[in-house]
Amino acid sequence: MDCPSEENLIRMKLEGISGIANLDFDIANRKLTVFHSGITDQIEKSIIELNLGGKKISTEQTNQTNFKENTNQKKLLWTVLGINFTFFIIEMTTGIISKSMGLVADSLDMLADSFVYGISLFAVGETLIKKKRTAKIAGYFQIALAIIGFVEVLRRFFGAEKLPNFSTMIIVSIFALVANGICLYLLQKSKSREEAHMKASMIFTSNDVIINLGVITAGILVNWLKSNKPDLIIGTIVFVLVIQGAIRILKLGK
Predict the structure, then answer these.
(1) Distance in angstroms (rounded) separating the CA atoms of residues 207 and 1
(2) Which of 35-39, 70-74, 197-201 shows the lowest per-residue confidence on average (mean pLDDT)?
(3) Which residues have a Cβ under 8 Å from the Cβ of 164 and sit 6 or more positions away?
(4) Where is 31: in which H helix or E strand?
(5) Could you tell me the pTM of the whole model?
(6) What sign has the CA pseudo-torsion 7, 10, 12, 16?
(7) Domain ranges in the chain?
């Protein structure tokens, strides 16, 4: 999952904790500043439960009470949700047609991000319990799809299967790479100007971008080696990442 997705996971996890006034994310340095009143135990525990490697660095008093609101955040979330879900459909369809497990797996990674953005936008004003219930359904659904994918990888590994269409793998993944770059750019554009330098680092360190490059590489190797093994290997790796993302989504339901 990409860095903006992790940010939304944290925001949803901390939603409902009284005393939190503002969350300031420094994605480039993977730091979060929580402006709050009261004890920090519940905040720290909630972040650690997401298994993102979070830990408390320091606590200090501040007199800051005014925080800049991002009025375009909801519009941006709808935009990246639309892009991710569109490419989920495109990659799933072309993955099935071209017999590429790499594209199918990458489509599920896109679906995972769609779930995160969708849940964060879901029924604004609804109860936290309803939102968490939705997170559980999304998480289990994602795990089920990933398990089906693993079974299909094993079937193709031990059976006689036609080579995936390497050109489709490469072309679709290039478009997905561009789409992920646009998503990350739009999300980063919503930050303050002094954080604009994070755009490039977010794009090139994103898990989604790495996965896209992995599928492109697999497509090249499929053509070069005349074997479907590179496609099955990248598919397996991405399915593991998808399950990890699903587990994080499930933690939102606790």
Answers:
(1) 6
(2) 197-201
(3) 98, 99, 100, 101, 102, 219, 222, 228, 231
(4) strand 31-36
(5) 0.65
(6) negative
(7) 73-251
